[in-house]
Specification:
Number of domains: 1
Order of helices and strands: HHHHHH
Structural class: mainly alpha
Low-confidence stretches: none
Largest sheet: none
Number of helices: 6
Distance between the termini: 47 Å
Number of strands: 0
Oligomer: single chain
Helix content: 55-70%
Shape: globular
Radius of gyration: 14 Å
């Protein structure tokens, strides 16, 4: 079976995602839900010998997570950059919840809002 360009981009994004979820300390269920996959598919996706196709929603979720990760790394130093997604947050987007939980519950719209907010903070807005 021949890999398409989209499959190759997905593989690169999923490889980066694997590093991000390890740094953020997400559980397997959290990591899968954050990008709209089930745990089995996320496990297969992380296997370099496997190829999975992602939906547009899943690709956009991956992109949002990568943007959030970059913005957090720009604004915060470690360990806060690594811990921010899994710490309770009193900000208006989160109302005391962990950003990762808000993102999982709200899906792509919540991820995009968190990305916009984190990029705004990183740019000093």
């Amino acid at each position: 079976m021949t890999e398409t360009a989209a499959d190759q981009r997905a593989a690169v994004g999923l490889k980066a995602y694997g590093r991000i979820i390890a740094q953020w300390g997400l559980s397997a269920p959290e990591a899968a839900a954050l990008v709209g996959l089930n745990e089995a598919d996320l496990g297969r996706a992380r296997d370099p010998d496997e190829t999975i196709s992602l939906t547009e929603d899943q690709v956009l979720r991956l992109s949002a997570v990568l943007g959030i990760y970059k913005a957090l790394g720009t604004y915060f130093e470690d360990p806060m950059a690594r811990l921010w997604m899994t710490r309770a947050n009193a900000g208006p987007l989160f109302a005391g919840a962990r950003p990762v939980d808000v993102a999982i519950e709200g899906g792509l719209p919540a991820l995009l809002e968190i990305r916009r907010a984190s990029e705004g903070v990183a740019m000093g807005l």
